[in-house]
Amino acid sequence: MNTAKNILTLTLASALGGAASLGGYKLFLEDKHTYQSFENEQTAVFARYMKNDTAATVIPEGLNFIHASNVVRPTVVHIKSTYEIKQQQRNGNPHFNDPFFRFFFDEPGMEQPQQREQQAPQASGSGVIISQDGYIVTNNHVIEGAAKIEVVLDDKRKYEAKLIGRDPETDLALLKIEEKNLPFARYGNSDNAKVGEWVLACGNPFDLTSTITAGIISAKGRNINLLRGNTNYAIESFIQTDAAVNPGNSGGALVNLKGDLIGINTAIASNTGAYAGYSFAVPVSIVKKVMDDLLNYGEVQRALLGVMIQDVTAELAKEKGIKEIKGVYIGGVNENSSAKDAGILDGDVILKIDEVFVNSSAELQEAVAQHRPGETLKVQLVRGNQVMTKNVVLKNKRGTTAMVKQASAQINEDLGVEFTEVSADEMAKLKIKSGVKITKLMAGKLRDAGVKAGFVITSIDRNIIKSPKDVAQSLENKTGGVLIEGIYPNGERAYYAIGW
């Protein structure tokens, strides 16, 4: 009798255990994602099935990279960007003529001239899946100006990706494919990464499938003036490594030996475009913030101190009477800026941002770039012989503490327009592939330039316009003259130059 009871008990326990396991499986794989932070979502998902992360990363019998390779490889994708045929002269993507960026693409093929006339040019790079429902981070220069973006997973599945948002200031972009239950890279902590630490780079060099290379962190907080020509608000604080990175690696993963993502491979230092010793990655501390902003706001919430800065060198210290060669020197403070309001003065030397030491302009920019307008920073600085702390409430580019989710509305107000997307029927009639239509024209720059209601904007400074958001992104960081191209409902093409 007792034996029968024991058998029944075991049977019921097994059934309940199986149901619980199935329920856990369904819960893990079928979550409804309403998250506002990829990092929080990753933490929640990994917590469900990773009880002892340390045990999984023990390196047996000396150094090897097997665990990290197995973790990261399924999360790295191949990205193929296709451009309009009319961009054959490479006018559509400003980076095509940039020798530094050019080598991250597989150059548009070596076909015969008559074949090139029939095929849209393509470029390729890499990306990293950061959520199980298909969000992917890559470099902005991998997809900028593309008419179509195709993503190929490590298991060869192919998808057309949607561009969620991009940020030229950090050279990052967020894509989305429609799929569930994907492997994804777990965010690491780039702030804790150490010079000399082993890292792996994973990407798709030379149009190959996922390839792993190993190296060490050579330096942190590197500013190589790669993005300065594109925008006045560029953020450069790269992780420098000697892991081999070659054409096609751009947008791929840089991970530590746990397989945690600590950077997005972005650039190489080479006169030939092939690996020659150094590569550079955007730290994940910046990636996390930019991705969440693009997801939740469609654009990056950039906070500014409002100061002119420079590294403290021996020469500067001697010239300015600075006692110690450390920190970041404040050479000027802008009016109506966060720094001005907090009482920071010309000649101050910033030592820490929120308890983190900053010893270069790049490190200071990285620390500030992790915050949004309205947030408060604790800034430690030295003035003469006195060390003091200032609480700085950060402001946006417009000098307010508000989020700039409505930046497109401000730009539309400056232009004096209301937009709508062009229907498929209208595009077919006008023989265009994309554009935004002016439905209402008010006082503003476009009316002053002679634009009339009904005009369809197809490009701004040769950048293809597909949506009203593209208009805002094309104009937000522009200065000087802007060329607007489009077509009227009667088929008349027109070009307008406006000051911005």
Summarize the structure.
This protein is α+β, with helices and mostly antiparallel strands and 500 residues long. Helix content is 25%, strand content 29%. The protein is built from 15 helices and 25 strands.
- Named CATH architecture of the largest domain: Beta Barrel
Residue fraction in strands: 25-35%
Q: How helix-rich are the residues, as a percent range?
A: 10-25%
Q: Calculate Rg over CA atoms.
A: 26 Å
Mean pLDDT: 82
Strand order of the largest sheet: 5-4-1-2-3-7-6
Pick out the low-confidence regions: 15-30, 87-116
Oligomer: single chain
What is the 3D form?
A: globular
CATH class of the largest domain: Mainly Beta
Q: Tally the helices: what do you get?
A: 15
Count of distinct structural domains: 3
**Helix vs. strand class:** alpha+beta
Biggest sheet: strands, sense, closure?
7 strands, antiparallel
